[in-house]
């Protein structure tokens, strides 16, 4: 692998560039981004070697598409139009059904691999990129059978070198499950942050009392709205369903408190404690 083009040089794209350079010593990393400041920062940090334009991907061995999911729908067909026969194109977006549907009939569909690395932080932009972000993280691959085998192998070699675990899933199942374990988590964090920020207008001391529990719970509220609004839009059906179930649980818990049914309150938390075993088993 000699020429890699990163389309969207932010946290995920930038972190991939850093790790790819550490594994493939002779690789050249080119950056494509609508934000000129991102490209300048990526150059200064040594994340990319040169700036590039979309039409230049005809020279690429690998193209990584790491842009907001609404933009991905627009530019991915153009990228597939421009690539060479042996180019592998990977997207890393958080919704998979719309992007797979978008290119299902493209003549170069066999050059495309739909992936979702379950990795990241609450920060964005190239300055947030870090080495080793993907080590021991799960990478979900959708419709792998639609990628030509030779390019599948290239992608799998890359993921192995980045330290990722592989899961295969159909796009609809991915979007349903990720609504619960990722998208709902972000909405919960944003809305908890909103609740406290609005209360702080009246009670100026509230943030002086905020401990590590609050900080860890609202960490995701620092995430980019420009990235997450299109995700919620594309996955609206599953996100709304997960919110309905979450709101139902919150309403039930509130009713238990109003009724002073503290034994039931205890049992609700006790029964949920098994999340520890589930998460420990994932490691």
Q: What features would you describe in this structure?
A:
- The chain is α/β, with parallel strands linked by helices and 283 residues long.
- Helix content is 51%, strand content 12%.
- Helix 6 packs across helix 9 (236-258).
Brief sketch in words of this structure:
This protein has 283 residues and is of the alpha/beta class.
N- to C-terminal separation?
A: 31 Å
Strand elements, count: 8
What's the overall average pLDDT, rounded?
93
Quickly give the structural class. Answer: alpha/beta
Question: What multimeric state do the chains show?
Answer: single chain
Rounded radius of gyration (Å): 21 Å
Low-pLDDT windows of residues: none
What would the keywords be for this entry?
283 residues; alpha/beta; eight-stranded mixed sheet; 8 strands; globular
SSE layout:
Layout: E1 3-7, H1 11-23, E2 28-32, H2 36-44, E3 50-51, E4 62-65, H3 69-82, E5 88-91, H4 97-102, E6 112-117, E7 138-142, H5 149-161, E8 165-168, H6 171-200, H7 212-217, H8 225-234, H9 236-258, H10 262-272, H11 275-282
Parallel strand pairs: 1-2, 1-4, 2-3, 4-5, 5-6, 7-8
Antiparallel strand pairs: 6-7
Helix pairs in contact: 6-9
């Amino acid at each position: 692998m000699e020429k890699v083009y990163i389309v969207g040089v932010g946290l995920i794209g930038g972190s991939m560039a850093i790790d790819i350079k550490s594994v493939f010593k002779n690789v050249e990393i080119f950056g494509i981004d609508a934000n000129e400041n991102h490209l300048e920062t990526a150059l200064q940090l040594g994340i990319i070697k040169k700036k590039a334009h979309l039409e230049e991907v005809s020279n690429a061995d690998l193209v990584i598409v790491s842009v907001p999911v609404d933009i991905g729908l627009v530019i991915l067909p153009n990228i597939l139009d421009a690539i060479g026969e042996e180019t592998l194109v990977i997207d890393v977006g958080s919704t998979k059904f719309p992007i797979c549907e978008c290119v299902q009939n493209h003549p170069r569909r066999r050059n495309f691999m739909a992936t979702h690395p379950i990795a990241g932080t609450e920060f964005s932009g190239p300055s947030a990129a870090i080495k080793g972000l993907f080590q021991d993280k799960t990478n979900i691959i959708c419709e792998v059978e639609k990628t030509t085998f030779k390019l599948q192998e290239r992608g799998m070699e890359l993921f192995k070198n980045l330290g990722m675990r592989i899961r295969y899933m159909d796009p609809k199942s991915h979007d349903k499950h990720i609504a619960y374990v990722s998208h709902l988590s972000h909405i919960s964090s944003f809305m908890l942050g909103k609740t406290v920020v609005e209360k702080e207008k009246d009670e100026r001391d509230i943030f002086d009392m905020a401990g590590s529990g609050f900080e860890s719970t609202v960490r995701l509220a620092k995430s980019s709205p420009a990235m997450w609004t299109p995700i919620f839009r594309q996955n609206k059906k599953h996100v709304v369903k997960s919110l309905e179930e979450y709101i139902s649980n919150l309403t039930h818990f509130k009713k238990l408190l109003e009724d002073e049914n503290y034994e039931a309150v205890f049992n609700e938390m006790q029964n949920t404690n098994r999340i520890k075993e589930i998460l420990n088993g994932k490691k």
